[in-house]
Amino acid sequence: MGHACPGCGGRLDEPFLCAACREGLRAWAQGDSVYLGLYGRVGGLVRALKYGRRFGLAPLLARPLAEGVLAQGWALSGVTAVPTLLPRLLRRGYNPPELLAKELARRLHLPYRRVLVRVRYAPSQPTRGRGRAKLPPGLFVPKGRVEGAWLLVDDVLTSGATFLRAKEALLQAGAERVYGAFLAVRDPAALGPYR
C-alpha cells in the first residue's frame, strides 16, 4: 500500500493504519480529558495526521476517542477545536485538531462549531522548551456564544498552556464546562492544572 504503518512502522495491511494498531487503539481518561496515549507511543499517528496529510486517519482515531467520551457520560452540547493562526492554516491547508473534532462530533451525534479564533502568535508548543507554559492571555477569542458543556479538541497536550488559553476563551463564549480530547499527551501531569 506504499506506506509503513504510522502506528508501529510495520507493514500496512489495511488503509492508513495496520490491523494490529487499529485493534490496539483505546482511549484513556483522566480528570476532564480523554486521550489515545502518551506521545512516545502514539506520536507517529499525530505526525502522520499533522504533517503527513493522512486525512483518512481522522475517522480511525476519532472512533476510540468517541468511545472514551461516551464512557465518561459527559452531557455535551457541542464539539469545537483549538484553532490555528491563519498563516499556519494557509501553509498546511487544514487544521488537524479540526479534522479530528469534526469526526468526533459526527460519531457523538453533536454539532461541530468553530467557536474560537486564534488572534495572537505564540511559538509552536513543542519548540518552546521550559518556557512553553507562559503563553500570553488573549491568544484566542470567541466568535460567538455557546451554552452548556463543550468538548475542546487538540492533537497534542504538551504543557496544557495552549489548551488552558483556549478553554478560557470558550468559557468566555458562554460554555458552562469544558472537557478535553487529545490524540497524545506529552506529560500526564499536564492533564491536571487546567481543570
Describe this structure in words.
With 195 residues, the chain is of the alpha/beta class. It has one domain: Rossmann fold, CATH 3.40.50. The protein is built from 6 helices and 7 strands. The protein has helices at 19-24, 39-50, 57-72, 86-92, 96-108, 161-172; strands at residues 28-30, 33-38, 76-81, 116-118, 140-142, 149-157, 177-185. The protein has a 5-stranded mixed beta sheet with strand order 1-2-7-6-3, sandwiched between helices. A two-stranded antiparallel sheet has the order 4-5. A hairpin with a 2-residue loop joins strand 1 (28-30) and strand 2.
List keywords for this structure.
195 residues; alpha/beta; Rossmann fold; 5-stranded mixed beta sheet; two-stranded antiparallel sheet; 7 strands; 34% helix
SSE blueprint and pairings:
Blueprint: H1 19-24, E1 28-30, E2 33-38, H2 39-50, H3 57-72, E3 76-81, H4 86-92, H5 96-108, E4 116-118, E5 140-142, E6 149-157, H6 161-172, E7 177-185
Parallel strand pairs: 2-7, 3-6, 6-7
Antiparallel strand pairs: 1-2, 4-5
Helix pairs in contact: 3-5
The class by helix and strand makeup works out as alpha/beta
Q: Return the domain count.
A: 1
Helix content: 25-40%
Strands side by side in the biggest sheet: 1-2-7-6-3
CATH architecture: 3-Layer(aba) Sandwich
Rg from Cα: 16 Å
The CATH C-level class name: Alpha Beta
Beta strands, count: 7
